[in-house]
Protein 1
Amino acid sequence: MAIWVLFHLFVLLPLLSSTTSANTEGDALYALRRAVNDPENVLQSWDPTLVDPCTWFHVTCDSDNRVTRLDLGNAKLSGNLVPQLGKLERLQYLELYMNSLVGSVPAELGGLKSLVSLDLYHNNLTGTIPPSLSKLSNLRFLRLNSNKLTGRMPRELTKLGNLKILDVSNNDLCGTIPTSGSFTKFTEESFVNNPRLEGPELMGFVRYDIGGCK
Ligand SMILES: *[C@@H]1O[C@H](CO)[C@@H](O)[C@H](O)[C@H]1NC(C)=O
């Protein structure tokens, strides 16, 4: 009896929890598959009857079978991003650039606590840049350029101390460009071609909450 209990505790429970995370991650990826049009069938191998998404094309996993990369740049995908992507806790690279994605950037992407690179450039994304992205403390590359994003540049993003590359050019952002924190290292090149975006912010002279957003 005691041995049976121990067997449950030390063998079955860990097994169960590892398949549960594989299912959660597989479900999140499958939600993306369902939300996009995929004329070139690049997501054909994303089969929910296979428990482990690590066998799917364009998905990379670590040794614990947790998803670390999604490589879907230039894949002719259209349709929407899904909030479920925020459940991929070990995702480091989210590469969805040069597709025809529409709709907004889900605020839930702020839950991708391992994320190093968020590449959504050259799509047709609308809506605002979620301030929740400021939770991505490992983020080094944030490329949202060439979309149709509106609203302000969230000042919270200046907290991203590891950010090396920021590109929000070619959108329809408004307000002023924050210049504090990690933003001190970015030049105007990161922000060009946002006709309603003013700045850089002149500390003490131009208030953050004015300029071009009315
Ligand atoms: C965005 O939409 C416009 C017009 O609806 C279209 O011409 C353009 O090709 C789209 N761009 C991308 C990257 O999908």
Protein 2
Amino acid sequence: MAKQLNLGIIGFGFMGQTHAETIKGLDYANLKAVCDTNEAQFVYAPDGVATYVSADELLADETIDTVIIAVPNLLHLKMVVKSAKAHKDIICEKPLAMNSEEVKEMMAVTKEENVRFTIHHQRRWDHDYRVAKEVYDQKLVGDIYTIKSSLYGFNGNMHDWHIYPELGGGMLYDWGVHLIDQILWMIPTKLQTVYADVRNVINEKVDDYFNIQLYFENGINAQIELGTYFLNSSENWFERHWFIGGNEGSAKIDGFNPKGEITRTSELLGNVPGQITMTHAGPTRSFGPAPEGRILTEALPEVDVSHRMFFDNYYAAVSGKEELTIQPEEILRLMQVVEAIRTSAKYHQSIHFE
Ligand SMILES: NC(=O)c1ccc[n+]([C@@H]2O[C@H](COP(=O)([O-])OP(=O)(O)OC[C@H]3O[C@@H](n4cnc5c(N)ncnc54)[C@H](O)[C@@H]3O)[C@@H](O)[C@H]2O)c1
């Protein structure tokens, strides 16, 4: 098949190099050039790929149609504006910008210059997330009332520019935007209120813990919790969990390569009249054990998914076969949710959103 995507990467650090690795596996894409102000990064550039020390040089390279922007967050706006003016299509890393005003600026310039513009929220193609989304879409636990998405780990470590707020550091911008985007894409209704606790547990300047509650118009309460300082003695400890509660069952999904099950009862539980169980504290019925045989388990749904599907969708969009899965308007809303989260945490108040 003829190569049809000609890509250049601006910012060749951790994520830029991850993109280069992914592109190697795509039979419809060519990596033409990479750019980094730190020439030491070029030892990781694949053979035959041009290297530039400035974005302007890369943008002047006429063999490139699409740029991937993977510089620190503070620089995204500047790079998006430059790239649009150089008439390159753009894939920008998350978080797209430092705030929603910057996103609006990006949307205006990309529209004006008529360039394609999307954001690398590849965690919409995470395996655990797609299993959870399947449970949601197929109503596998009935009418859902609660969803909990949590991520813990790495013993408090934050590094490099991630520890400076002025460069776009902190966990809300790092993992937060992924976890929030997943929930917003899963639950396509109005988001009514936002309540959040955001903390600096061991990092003085940037957030390293958050607990966010999103209440949606369809009655679902989604909770997102992230902690970088949930200590554990195992090496490389990183925990990912989902819990989804519905009126016909519960789904438990653990790990990025998920294990878990759907649990339901053999008949819908209702209020049972009659017999009252006495405890030393008086009569009780709450949290009683289910009668034998009442609890049934089922396997989680199977999904076939991988991060390269972000690029498959991009290529399909370039070829006119699909819409881009990730639209700037959605990411503007995401950024506005992040702002509501910060306001809620600052004043310890619930924020009316939509
Ligand atoms: N989608 C994801 O899962 C994911 C994962 C990690 C990082 N990211 C995002 O990718 C971006 C980069 O993060 P990272 O972890 O790779 O950081 P990094 O520090 O490893 O890499 C950034 C690179 O940009 C270079 N750079 C800085 N200023 C530059 C400039 N003016 N011109 C050209 N190059 C410049 C630096 O020298 C560095 O090599 C961030 O926006 C981050 O949020 C996304």
